[in-house]
Amino acid sequence: MLEKTFSVGPFQCNCRLLVCPKTGDGVLVDSGDEPEKILREIKASEAQLGRSIQIRYLLHTHGHLDHIGGTRGVREGLPLQAPRIALHPGDEELYQNLQMQGNLFGMKFDAPLAVDHYLQDEEIIRVGELKFSVVHTPGHSPGSVCLRLHEDSGLKVKETLLSGDTLFRKSVGRTDLWGANQDQMFSSIRKRILVLDDDTRVCPGHGPDTSIGLEKRENPFLV
Ligand SMILES: [Zn+2]
Ligand SMILES: [Zn+2]
């Protein structure tokens, strides 16, 4: 798998490009800002892979502005590929209110494009040979999801969890924003995230990667 992470915008959201090297099909997760930079990264990755990349989905872990603010620009920058904009329906209201979210931070955005695909809990999304499953983890926002990525390379299966703003390295998401619920978030973390294998790599929406085992041992909000 070709994997690139680049932080975008003033909130330094981790935008991730994940591409199946065999087919060139890929996804972008949380195109939160700086669409021109994201489009440049896709081009650079095509040069690196030596083939064209088709972005199939613009996946979103949730509907906060720092995760959705660049989506329109990226979608419009890939007119022929027409990647599907995907979000959990629980965050539709946040998504549609991008401009209002921006007003709170003095940031201007164009109106968001329509959502093409509503993510459902336990849904499987296949892109080339990449396989993602959706884990609905409400709490940080009503429609927060984590995305599990299974990489099966013969004998070894590698598991990665894109945890959005629900779980960070040695921290957890904030719950003082619209629609958030702290009890629900901790319940999501315990019932849906910490049950994964300890060696599952965790890639949060901000900051460095971690693992389930490390968070079980060292996250001050969870031990
Ligand atoms: Zn957030
Ligand atoms: Zn965020």
> Spans of 5+ residues with little confidence (pLDDT < 50)?
none
Radius of gyration: 16 Å
What is the terminal-to-terminal distance? 33 Å
- How much helix, percentage-wise, in residues? 25-40%
Q: What summary fits the major beta sheet? A: 6 strands, mixed
> Quick check: average pLDDT?
96
**Quantity of strands, as a count:** 14
CATH topology: Metallo-beta-lactamase, Chain A
Task: State the strand order across the main sheet.
Answer: 1-2-3-4-5-6
In terms of structural class, how would the helical and strand content be classed?
alpha/beta
Q: Name the CATH superfamily assignment.
A: Ribonuclease Z/Hydroxyacylglutathione hydrolase-like
Q: Which series of helices and strands comes N to C?
A: EEEHEHHEHHEEEEEEEHEEH
Domains counted in the coordinates: how many? 1
CATH class equals Alpha Beta
The fraction of residues in strands falls at 25-35%
Bound molecules: zinc ion
Task: Please tell me about this protein's structure.
The longest helix is centred in the first third of the chain and has 15 residues, at about 35-50. The chain has a single domain (about 1-220), classed as 4-Layer Sandwich (Metallo-beta-lactamase, Chain A), CATH 3.60.15.10. With about 220 residues, the chain is α/β, with parallel strands linked by helices. It is built from seven helices and 14 strands. A hairpin with a 5-residue loop joins strand 2 and strand 3 (about 25-30). The mean pLDDT is about 95. A six-stranded mixed sheet has the order 1-2-3-4-5-6, covered by helices on one side. Strands 7-8-9-10-13-14 form a six-stranded mixed sheet. It has a two-stranded antiparallel ribbon with strand order 11-12. Helix 1 packs across helix 3 (about 70-75). The relative contact order is 0.14. The structure holds zinc ion (ZN) (2 copies). One zinc ion binds near residues 140 and 165. One zinc ion binds near residues 11, 64, 67, 205 and 206.
